[in-house]
Write a structure and sequence with these properties.
About 70% of the residues lie in helices and about 10% in strands. By secondary structure, it is mostly helical.
Length: about 150
């Protein structure tokens, strides 16, 4: 394993933190003009995108994802159901479990956001030097692998 001090010399933690913040802010600014997204609370948008990207989840999984209580999650889901964004159903496997999935309106918001994001990324990559593309690609693949697997000690 690489010496952590060596990594910190190359990627100073404050620089990485600020860079990630700037990237998130940049993409958040991109979504602001979308009226349907602008009307959502951040937690509601996260729920929609989580369901869109990861598929239907139960209430416990959503509570863990947002790190919130079940009662707060219920209030959020109630509000989003009234907006016709998603639906709740008893699990076919265990009737005590409540599954949450996107309705057409919620899916359309996510598809529009995804399409817009793809356009934004394409515009971004037009500005990147050709020789930097493999480095950026490898970095994102590594970040994805580490976050998907969970960062563990070797």
């Amino acid at each position: 394993m690489t010496d952590p001090y060596e990594i910190n010399d190359v990627l100073a933690t404050p620089v990485v933190f600020e860079s990630l913040f700037d990237i998130v802010s940049y993409f958040a600014d991109y979504f602001k003009p979308a009226v349907q997204i602008r009307s959502l609370k951040t937690s509601e948008l996260f729920i929609l995108l989580y369901l869109f990207l990861k598929g239907p989840k139960n209430m416990n999984q959503l509570s863990r994802f947002l790190n919130t209580t079940k009662s707060n999650m219920t209030a959020l889901i109630d509000h989003m159901e009234r907006q016709d964004l998603l639906k709740r159903e008893h699990s076919k496997v265990d009737r005590r479990v409540i599954d949450v999935s996107l309705k057409t309106k919620g899916k359309q918001i996510c598809e529009d956001a995804s399409d817009g994001f793809n356009e934004l990324v394409q515009e971004f990559f037009k500005k990147v030097k050709k020789e930097d593309l493999p480095v950026i690609s490898k970095g994102f693949m590594c970040l994805h692998r580490l976050t998907a697997e969970g960062i563990t000690e070797e």
